[in-house]
Amino acid sequence: MSLIANATPSITGLSPIRHDWTREEIGALFDLPFPELMFRAQTAHRQHFDPTEVQISTLLSIKTGGCPEDCAYCPQSARYDAGVRAEKLMALETVLAEARAAKSAGASRFCMGAAWRSPKDRELDAVCEMVEAIKALRLETCATLGMLTAAQARRLKESGLDYYNHNLDTSPEFYGQIITTRVYQDRLETLDHVRAAGIHVCCGGIVGMGETRADRVGMIAALAGLPVHPESVPINMLVRVAGTPLGDEPMLDPLEFVRTVAVARITMPRAVVRLSAGREDMNEETQALCFLAGANSIFYGPKLLTTPNPERDRDRVLMEKLGLSPMEPQ
Ligand code: SAM
Ligand code: DTB
Ligand code: SF4
Prior knowledge:
Elements (H helix, E strand, L loop, with lengths): L1 H5 L2 H4 L10 H9 L2 H15 L4 E11 L28 H14 L3 E6 L6 H15 L4 E5 L5 H10 L3 E3 L6 H4 L8 H14 L2 E3 L2 E3 L5 H12 L7 E6 L16 H14 L4 E4 L8 H9 L4 E3 L12 H11 L2 E2 L4
Parallel strand pairs: 1-2, 1-9, 1-10, 2-3, 3-4, 4-5, 6-7, 7-8, 8-9
Helix pairs in contact: 3-10, 4-11, 5-6, 6-7, 7-9, 10-11, 11-12
The site of iron/sulfur cluster (SF4) has 9 residues, from loops.
């Protein structure tokens, strides 16, 4: 697979994997007439994936609320009153019970989120124990715990962690309007540590935070410009939570969300692109367009970290209507 994917396009017929996308080129993709954009996205999608398969992940918040960071979108920041009660790190057995339930409901990956700026080593040990136990259930594992040192990333790799989620969130220019307690460079460094440790990278962002089209272009340029593309790219539609600074943000035009998914697919053709947060507020038609635009992963189960996600039955019906089936672990 990797031999073929890395070969030149003249031999394989595949488009080359590029890391030098300019903002002008990415802007031009966003500007394409919708049918052209969708055609380009579907062409890229079919070169690397079966378009009828969707990767299924389930999320669990293992440490909720009370976070010292000031991310303006986040209901878990201690600075905002979004009605989220701060809790301690969950016990291993509780997490395992949730992982078993996720597996029997059909998930192939179990993703654990913690409302930390960065984990303390003692906290990391507890998460590593969870990773080992979840791997033993034959589930893929993912964690999102905030910033990591190089040594912490290696420790997670030793425990068997498959993916680490750490988002760039938005463009470098808009970032300072959303988060002030850590900088873009901090995020890039954590991503370097994760990559160097040999863990698959899950890295994407959020749209609908009041950013401009140019910021969405800048976000995709930053993701597609990483030295190695993330294996997984979550595109989140902002979940507008009352009490956060972005609680009253107007909703982004869903077609602009679809365009963002399509441009992520074209620029990072080998990545699994996740139609991530925000599905609860999307109708079936918008979600179907996201799959046509190259999205091939979802979070499955009635809760994201603290906010609602579609009920499993609703997703089963949608998958059936669209003729989509779960992707086997790679
Ligand atoms: N605390 C860690 C961190 O921020 O790196 C890990 C958990 S944090 C909740 C993971 C990601 O969830 C954030 O980077 C952000 O992209 C996404 N997220 C948080 N709140 C969101 C919201 N209201 N809408 C959409 N995405 C959100
Ligand atoms: C990601 O990009 N989106 C997920 C996951 N990575 C951790 C989180 C979405 C959170 C939505 C708000 C909430 O439920 O608290
Ligand atoms: Fe904390 Fe993560 Fe929420 Fe930011 S996104 S406030 S770091 S939990």
